[in-house]
Design goal:
The protein is of the alpha/beta class. It has three domains: 18-120, Nucleotidyltransferase, domain 5 (2-Layer Sandwich); 123-300, 2-Layer Sandwich (Nucleotidyltransferase, domain 5), CATH 3.30.420; 312-497, Orthogonal Bundle (Hypothetical protein af1432). Helices cover 46% and strands 15% of the residues. It is built from 20 helices and 13 strands. The chain has helices spanning 56-59, 64-83, 95-99, 103-114, 123-137, 183-192, 195-198, 210-222, 237-247, 252-256, 269-283, 295-304, 312-327, 334-345, 353-361, 371-383, 392-406, 415-418, 423-446, 477-489, and strands at residues 18-23, 27-33, 44-49, 89-93, 119-120, 143-148, 153-159, 162-169, 204-208, 287-290, 454-458, 461-466, 492-497. A five-stranded mixed β-sheet has the order 3-2-1-4-5. Helix 20 (477-489) links the parallel strand 12 (461-466) and strand 13 (492-497). It is elongated. The protein starts with 17 loop residues before the first strand and ends with a strand.
Length: 498
């Protein structure tokens, strides 16, 4: 029996759930989103390997055994949709169904099983939606988006959150096992023929697609990279090129020995490496970003018209701060804390408003954990948060601030991440965490009335103005936090009672 575990919506509650079925040349992907407009992270995510397009290069037909697998996969998806009563479903198909001579019967079968129409995307639309998907998931999406699938490779130019140019090329990973000995020459020739691509220099290349994401697992292991979050990862450019060159020369026997790459991706890793190298060379890119969001998210974003300025980090941190105040005994006026902290950090080069606000909102993470383990727990939780538009550097910065909010002294658990952000950012986040601690301690004592309290820097001194009524703070843990803040900032401190 299948695990039909997607919960039904309660009676009278508006059903905002949406499902999308993506019938690709290599896999069928099925995702369900709770409310796509507010959160583009799926609550259910299933990948089923079928290999519909594995014979396209030689026969231009869908593989017959793969059709059987795909039909069974669609029946499984249909059962889940019926059991969970999800009515808002979109079904799309790409290169294999688009070009195969025998796809018409399969298309009718798919529509009958899922009881909805199947939208077979053109190559240009597929490229456009891949570009829109990168806009959904990557904070700075300007550049070239390259989506390597089973049947095709899509390229899209993104600028100012808009798609300027697109191209679809029939050079997906199934070409890697074709008998075309001139495949790389043919790829070079077609890439060179794309006017908008060859005539421009693009600083940033955003790579998406399962095989390229598998390559990142090799990078993580090869360079002992500690934060194993693939989305929004920006590898060291020089090391990434070095790895691609090495992998592109691997023998198949060597690839099969890489245990952390799934067997369905192993045959295509070498090809994916070479294609990536050629795109980097031709585009003159100097920065690589890996995206998990692509075609499906882009397709849905086009339908639901999501706000590209929407910030998932702020949205989720606001939700968590509200939840804290609903459940916890100690109410925190996060807005008042933010105003007090902002007066200190407003011109700080390493503390953005985004990090400042989210660091205050997320101080409750770990509050129910034992004190000795709280800082490390909170640090790890923030590193692994399932959020889009949240880069590795911002994850480490925010996690560091929350860690030092909870504990000023223990650093062993964060040492291996320290080198992933620059030194100034690291110590600025320590200062932010400690400052947040001081601010909330004062707020809990004064009912978040910060009148006559002030912390500021003057003549390389950090000044702490306190009303005489609250002079007992100088005998509390707050004074110790202020001492630590002074040391981190390498400044002399002055206490002013008013």
């Amino acid at each position: 029996m299948y695990n039909l575990s997607i919960p039904k919506k309660k009676l009278f509650e508006k059903d905002t759930r949406v499902g999308i079925v993506d019938i690709g040349s290599d896999t069928i992907r099925f995702q369900i989103f709770e409310n796509f407009k507010n959160n583009q992270i799926p609550i259910f995510n299933k990948k089923i390997s079928c290999g519909l397009g594995k014979d396209l290069a030689s026969t231009n037909e869908l593989n017959k055994n793969s059709i059987k697998k795909a039909i069974n996969a669609l029946k499984y998806i249909s059962d889940i949709l019926k059991a969970s009563a999800i009515n808002n479903v979109h079904v799309i198909a790409t290169e294999a169904v688009r070009v195969a001579n025998n796809s018409s019967v399969f298309k009718l079968q798919a529509e009958s099983i899922l009881n909805t129409s199947l939208n077979v995307l053109s190559g240009e639309d597929e490229a456009k939606y891949s570009g829109l998907g990168a806009i959904v998931g990557i904070k700075k999406s300007k550049g070239i988006v390259a989506d390597l699938g089973g049947g095709s490779l899509e390229l899209a130019e993104v600028k100012k959150k808009r798609i300027l140019n697109t191209t679809s090329m029939s050079f997906g990973v199934h070409r890697a096992i074709s008998k075309n000995k001139n495949i790389y020459r043919d790829f070079d020739k077609e890439l060179e023929s794309i006017d908008w691509f060859s005539e421009n220099n693009f600083k940033r290349l955003i790579l998406t697609g399962g095989t390229w994401r598998s390559l990142i697992k090799i990078y993580f292991v090869k360079y002992d990279y500690p934060l194993n979050v693939i989305h929004h990862f920006k590898p060291n450019f020089k090391l990434f090129i070095e790895m691609l060159e090495e992998v592109s020369n691997y023998k198949q026997k060597e690839l099969k020995q890489i245990s952390y790459i799934t067997k369905d991706k192993t045959p295509y890793i070498k090809y994916a490496s070479r294609v990536a190298l050629k795109i980097i060379q031709k585009s003159k890119s100097r920065e690589i970003v890996i995206s998990y969001t692509a075609l499906r998210e882009g397709y849905l974003s086009n339908i639901y018209n999501i706000n590209n300025k929407f910030d998932p980090l702020i949205h989720e941190s606001n939700k968590l701060s509200k939840l804290h105040n609903d459940l916890e005994f100690n109410y925190i006026n996060h807005a008042a804390v933010y105003d007090f902290c902002f007066s200190f950090f407003k011109n700080h080069p390493y503390v953005s408003r985004r990090l400042l606000k989210s660091s205050i909102n997320l101080t409750s993470i770990g509050s129910s954990i034992d004190k000795d383990e709280r800082a490390q727990f909170a640090f790890n939780q923030i590193l692994k948060m399932e959020l889009l538009k949240f880069s590795h550097s911002d994850r480490i910065k925010l996690a560091t601030a929350i860690h030092f909010f909870h504990d000023n002294y223990k650093r062993d658990g964060i040492k291996k991440y320290k080198h992933l952000i620059n030194k100034n950012s690291f110590y600025s986040m320590i200062a932010l965490g400690i400052f947040n601690k001081i601010s909330i301690d004062i707020g809990l004592l004064t009912n978040f009335n910060y009148q006559n309290f002030e912390i500021y820097i003057k003549d390389h001194n950090i000044i702490f103005k306190i009303p005489k009524l609250y002079s007992d703070l100088l005998k509390s843990k707050t004074k110790k936090s202020f001492d630590t803040l002074s040391k981190v900032l390498k400044m002399q401190q002055k206490i002013v009672l008013i």
